[in-house]
Design goal:
Elements lengths: L9 H13 L9 H26 L9 H30 L1 H4 L3 H6 L3 H23 L1 H4 L1 H15 L10 H5 L5 H12 L6 H44 L26 H10 L3 H4 L5 H34 L12 H25 L6 H4 L12 H11 L6
Helix pairs in contact: 2-3, 2-6, 3-6, 3-10, 6-8, 10-11, 11-14, 11-15, 14-15, 15-17
């Protein structure tokens, strides 16, 4: 599928192309305009839209926030908009991009479509914004957030080689839990902690986290590991060619019909030809270090997802194991008990992801690398959780 937003202006392509080729990222020049527009859009939300609109939508809460929390609020607004936008775009591309759907295992590693490049550009534009915000407010949010921004931008930018262009929409779907995580944070700040709205949002957050990050993420990780292993075998085979020059791997990668010969209209022909458009840059195969970078990053991200989910389960089990005080006059309703469990588990997830962003998990920049925005920044969740358990202003009580 061709890029829905079209090609960049000629002057911008000419400006970016020398740097893109120097960085071994030829597809970057095709999506430079989208990176710039995405960055400008998110920066506009942070600097103008959120400060103007938030006092109108939350007049009792936003004006009373501290300067630091207002900055945090604006960042969460951007994160919420970005996660909703990019998830919707990724799902749409996965549904309508026929060339992507028809890719073979090797083409999923070396191939390219403009629509997948668009998803990549939107993500990179956000990570550029995230990097700038992290650098400007490093005294507020710490070095961990800056390391996360750098590593996420670096890992995701490697897809412009192109490499794993097919998987750009696939792994963006990790972000499906982020809107609910941001909403959880906002509900705290507008004094709706413990509300039924936060309970419903918490249930959606935990369900989405489990389905997208654990089930979907694990399955897709296995598939991408298999594809990359096959690509490495092709690369090593080409490098050990008995000829003086290494063999070209593309003969075993792209279908002969990728030239568009089987199409009946020009759009189809162009879209099919685009899959192998950058084959000259991938003819030598995929570098081993690049595969290792993605495998290590993905394994660490999956480990963190399972770690955070285990912490949520631990929080839930602790609630069941803790002896409850008997009160014959006012026995605790099951729905109230369930609400406490869900809210505490959601708060635990926010706490753990916030700790990563603040650098409190003591991970190196390479370990933090993922290309996936891990969501909320948080401020003092342990205190909030204690207050939640103490007061519990539950609906219907």
């Amino acid at each position: 599928m061709l890029d829905p937003l079209g090609s960049p202006p000629a002057w911008l392509r000419d400006l970016v192309e020398p740097f893109a080729l120097k960085l071994s990222s030829p597809t970057l020049s095709e999506h430079a305009h989208e990176v710039v527009l995405a960055f400008a859009f998110y920066q506009f939300i942070h600097s103008f839209l959120s400060p103007w609109l938030s006092p109108i939508l939350a007049p009792q809460s936003y004006p009373k926030l501290s300067a630091r929390t207002k900055v945090n609020w604006d960042i969460h607004v951007v994160s919420l908009v970005q996660s909703v936008l990019i998830n919707a775009a990724a799902l749409w591309v996965m549904y309508v991009d026929e060339e992507r759907s028809s890719m073979s295992s090797a083409e999923r590693v070396f191939g390219y479509t403009g629509a997948c490049g668009l998803i990549q550009a939107l993500a990179v534009g956000y990570f550029v914004y995230d990097l700038i915000v992290s650098a400007v407010y490093i005294k507020l949010f710490g070095i961990g957030m800056l390391f996360h921004a750098i590593s996420a931008l670096w890992v995701f930018s490697l897809g412009f080689r192109p490499f794993l262009n097919y998987y750009a929409p696939t792994f963006i779907l990790y972000e499906l839990s982020s809107p609910f995580l941001n909403i959880h944070w906002f509900l705290d700040k507008v004094n709706m902690t413990g509300s039924r709205a936060q309970w419903y949002n918490g249930m959606a957050l935990l369900a989405m986290f489990f389905c997208c990050r654990l089930v979907w993420g694990t399955c897709q990780s296995i598939i991408v590991y298999t594809d990359m292993w096959k690509a490495l075998q092709q690369t090593w085979s080409a490098q050990t060619s008995p000829l003086q020059a290494p063999a070209n791997v593309n003969a075993h990668v792209f279908y002969p019909t990728r030239d568009g010969g089987m199409c009946v209209d020009e759009t189809c022909a162009r879209a099919n030809a685009e899959v192998s458009r950058f084959k000259d840059y991938t003819a030598g195969g995929v570098p081993t270090w690049l595969v290792l970078t993605y495998v290590v990053s993905n394994l660490i991200l999956n480990f963190l997802n399972y770690f955070w989910f285990s912490k949520m389960i631990e929080t839930v089990l602790k609630r069941f194991r803790t002896p409850q005080k008997k009160d014959d006059k006012n026995p605790e309703k099951f729905e109230d008990f369930a609400q406490k469990v869900i809210l505490e588990a959601a708060a635990k997830l926010e706490e753990e992801e916030s700790a990563l962003r603040r650098g409190e998990l003591c991970l190196s920049p390479e370990q933090i690398a993922s290309g996936i925005d891990v969501g909320a920044l948080g401020e003092d969740l342990r205190k909030r959780r204690a207050e939640l358990v103490a007061k519990v202003p539950l609906p219907g009580s």
